[in-house]
Design brief:
A hairpin with a 5-residue loop joins strand 1 (3-11) and strand 2 (17-26). The protein starts with a strand and ends in a 15-residue tail after the last helix. The chain is 55% helix and 18% strand. It has one helix at 33-89; strands at residues 3-11, 17-26. The chain has 104 residues and is an alpha+beta fold.
Length: 104
């Protein structure tokens, strides 16, 4: 076991060294400590934050998929409506051509 040596110096009024004594005491052990506890709390907080964000990203992904599906349905309906309007405009005859009123 290591020991710590401490020297204590006695001085007079003028600051001169009058005497000294040496004290040996056992060195303090490094324990679990506050630093380790703080480190564990930080790691636990990071894991919780990561898990929370993953859940948020999964929810956002599901909402994005739902929005994409809704947009595809809307586009399909719009295309069908445009096709129906084109058929009604030509009276259902796809060979009918539009007339050009700007000719001489």
């Amino acid at each position: 076991m290591s020991k710590v040596r401490e020297a204590r110096v006695e001085r007079d009024v003028d600051g001169n060294v009058v005497g000294s004594t040496e004290i040996e005491r056992p060195k303090k052990k490094g324990g679990f400590g506050w630093g380790m506890l703080l480190g564990i709390l930080i790691v636990a907080g990071a894991i919780i934050a990561f898990a929370y964000n993953q859940g948020s990203f999964q929810t956002a992904g599901a909402r994005a998929d739902q929005a994409t599906q809704t947009a595809q349905v809307d586009i399909s309906q719009t295309a069908n409506n445009a096709n129906d309007a084109a058929h009604r405009a030509t009276d259902g005859n796809p060979n009918t051509k539009a007339t050009d009123n700007t000719s001489n």
